[in-house]
Each structure stands twice: as C-alpha cells, then as structure tokens.
Amino acid sequence: MTLFRAAPRFLTLALLGAASALPLQSAHAADDDKTTYELLNLFGEVFDRVRSDYVEPVSDEKIIESALNGMLTSLDPHSSYMNEKQFGEMKVQTKGEFGGLGIEVTMENGLVKVVSPIDETPAARAGVKPGDFIAEIDDQQVMGMSLSDAVEKMRGPVGTSVKITILREGSKEPLKITLKRDTIRIQSVRSRAEGDVAYLRITSFSENTADAMEAALEKEKQAIGKNLKGIVLDLRNNPGGLLDQAIEVSDAFLERGEIVSTRSRKPDESRRYAARPGDIANGLPMVVLINEGSASASEIVAGALKDHKRAVALGVKSFGKGSVQTVIPISGHGAIRLTTARYYTPSGISIQAKGITPDIEVQQAKLEKLDSNINISEASLRGHLSNDQEKGAEKAPAGITLPTKPLEGKVTGKDIPSTEDYQLSRALDLIQALSIYNDRQSPQPAPKPVAAPKLVNPTTGKPSLPTPAKP
C-alpha cells in the first residue's frame, strides 16, 4: 500500500475518478502552501503508521473505510460511506423491510440522537422517544464512535438482545433499556375513520408510500361515505425517506403550483417540482400534524400543503432537516451518501436547522376524562324552581353530589379518541369547524318567488284592488 506515497496521481484517480463525484482538475487547482498531492502523501504516511504501529492489527479495508467515513461525516451529520453490506441494507430499507430495532438516528455532540422510533417496533414498544440520546450500547461508550459504527452495533441477528443507555431531558438518571432485535416491516401508511373524518398516518416514505396513501384514503371514503368532512394527515415522528414519494404525496392533494425546489452547488443542477392537476380529496378541509420528530421528506409535504394553504399545520415545530442526500454507488465497493442540495418550500424558505412552524401550535398532552359524580347545575341550587312541564317533578337535593369513589382519571366517553391523543383531538375539532365554516360560505340557492296574495271583496266575492292609503 505504499502506492499512496509513490504514486499520488493514481490515488487521486482511485479516490475521485471512480466516484465521478468531484472534477479531476480540482487536484491541480491549488498550488499554494500545501498542494493536494502533499496532503495525499500525508494520508499515505498516516495510513502506513497505523498499519505498522497500531496496538492491534487492523485490516487495510477497515482503515480505508474508516478514513472515508471520517471524511464524509465531518462534512455534516447526514453524509457517510457505506460498504457493500451497508449499501445492500440501505436498499432493503427503502423497500420497507429491514432488520434492527426500528429507530431512526443521527449524530449530535458525539452521541447518537433519536430522530424517531418507528411504530410497532422494539424501540417504540420500549418507550424510546424522539430527542433521546443513546450514550452506551452494550455498556460501550458511544462517544468516539462514528454513526455507522453505532448503528452497526445496534444491528444484529433477529431475536438477539442489545442493551442501550439513554439520556433523556427531564430524567435525573440514565435509562437502561434492553431491546430484542426484530425484523422491521414498515407499513408506511395506516388509516382509520375518526367519526366522519379520515385519519391517515404516514410513518415513513418508502417506495410505495404514495400508492398506499391513496388506497387508504379511498378505503376511508368508502367506509365514511358522503358524510366525509375532512382529512387529518399525521406526519408526526416521520423521519423522512424518498424524495419522489414526498413529492407524489403532496401532488395528490394539490391542483397546481410548486411542491419543492432543490438548489445545488451548481445552478444547472437545481430542480423545481410542480403539482399536476387533480386533488384526490376534492378540496375537503385538511389538517397536517407535525412534531419535533417530523423530518426531511415529511417536512417537504407539510411545507407544500401549508404554503399553498391546502392544509392547516398543527402541532409543534418540526426537526429542520432541509438537505438532500444523493447515494452515489462506487463500483465494486459500496456507495457514498453525500449531501448535494438544500430544499426549499414553495414560498422559497429554507427550513434547514429551522423546521416547519405550525399554523397552530399545540403541545402534546394526555386526554383524561374524570370519572366523577360531581354535578353542579341549577337543579343543585337550594330552593330552585321546579320545572312546571314535568308532572310530578321533585326538587333535586340541594348542594353538590360528591363522588362515591376516588377519581380514577380514566378516559371514557365516545367524544374522546381512543388514542388519548390531544393533538389529534384538536385536529378533529378543527376539521369540524372548517367544515361548518365552508358550508356557511357556500352559495345558497335563491329563494323561490312567492306569489302576491289575491285580495277578495268580502261583499261581492270578486277580486279587488287594494285601497290606496290616504296621505
């Protein structure tokens, strides 16, 4: 491997030319204090030193992969190198099925930060939350690991266990959780009827998300019928996925206009994506739910629907990942995931590190309906009048009836969603309000003309003209 020092031009071709990610002439552009060749010689010297003097033998492949990963991850948290195995796993994941814990993560301050647990996975069932920091994996410190190393340690054969230590805001002590690895099959779209409102939840954007979403809405249309009042599109804790699927989901509800634009380093590589005519919801009121776990592709959808005033965004500010990653295969090795552009909402706003601000901010809370016999009304007032329309009505006992058992705080009653979801409950209320408002704004049919009454002379029985009033 001394080739790196003896033939730096060959190294330049090997590292840059094969990927076609950077122009070859960039190696000759700078002829200042330290040329590119000198820096590549530095790399070769360090490589030889690690190879010969490190405390334990390290394979050449591992050293090179680590160097590539270090180069990319130092650029931003979302760029990385994937070897052939990792590249294969990534392709499987975008198809909606993969092995692991069901947790989307990023790297922040040297720790693994949870962006979102995926519904109905080991991580979600164990109570892992967006914003948690993973400090240890199987009692090994995460600090000092690359993101890919940490992810690799959390992966493993289905049925085996892994122990993670979590740091959570508001928790005084670290949380130690043992998770059993499982095959993660992502059902990216779930739906149900919430009364006369169609509830659609998109958990991620994989290859068939747009088709699955349209099929789910059609199913709820059939179930609810002509009384359908509106749609709640739930993108909370959705970590993103494929850009084309986010564009198709947005397009499904928009008649026209820009959905998203991407701006690259080279102006000629920038792109704009526009909606095609046709709204599968036929203009029905929409609310899109977002929170701090809504990232990337889900922010594209929320931003497009909000900017076009097609939906009301409700919840809390989203994650703020406004960058586009391109996967560039490296022949015979794997691929690099490289940040190549920023994306902008239709109004031209970059949400990078800012997020989508909801139209209506609603913090999450747990709904509780108290199981209580407390009843304060007119009938409870001492000396109140009885209702004279009720025969034999008797006065209710004066005072307040106290509960016969302690308040349990259970959620009961058909008026509260079974999910105990405060943000969803507010979204359903808003859909009802928008539906009522739209009905009142719709043009009303003109009243039918009423014929003037015929005046009859009471003496002769014949029609007569009205007597003019005297001035």
**Number of extended strands:** 19
Q: Judging by the overall fold, what is the CATH architecture of the largest domain?
A: Alpha-Beta Complex
The oligomerization state is single chain
Q: How are helices and strands ordered from N to C?
A: HHHHEHEEEHEEHEEEEEHEHEEEHEEEEH
| Low-pLDDT ranges | 1-24, 396-418
**Main pleated-sheet profile:** 6 strands, antiparallel
The fold-level CATH name of the largest domain is 2-enoyl-CoA Hydratase, Chain A, domain 1
Ends apart, CA distance between termini: 119 Å
Task: Look at the structure and name the CATH superfamily of the largest domain.
Answer: 2-enoyl-CoA Hydratase, Chain A, domain 1
Our estimate of the beta-strand percent is: 15-25%
Helix share bin: 25-40%
CATH class of the largest domain: Alpha Beta
Number of domains: 3
Notes on the structure:
Helices cover 27% and strands 22% of the residues. The chain is elongated. The protein starts with a helix and ends in a 30-residue tail after the last helix. The longest helix is centred in the last third of the chain and has 20 residues, at 422-441. With 471 residues, it is α+β, with helices and mostly antiparallel strands. It has three domains: 3-86, no CATH class; 97-185, Roll (Pdz3 Domain); 189-361, 2-enoyl-CoA Hydratase, Chain A, domain 1. It has helices at 3-6, 8-17, 36-53, 60-73, 84-94, 122-125, 147-154, 209-224, 243-253, 297-307, 422-441, and strands at 80-82, 97-100, 103-108, 111-117, 133-137, 140-141, 161-167, 175-180, 182-185, 189-194, 197-202, 230-234, 258-264, 271-274, 286-290, 312-315, 323-330, 334-344, 360-361.
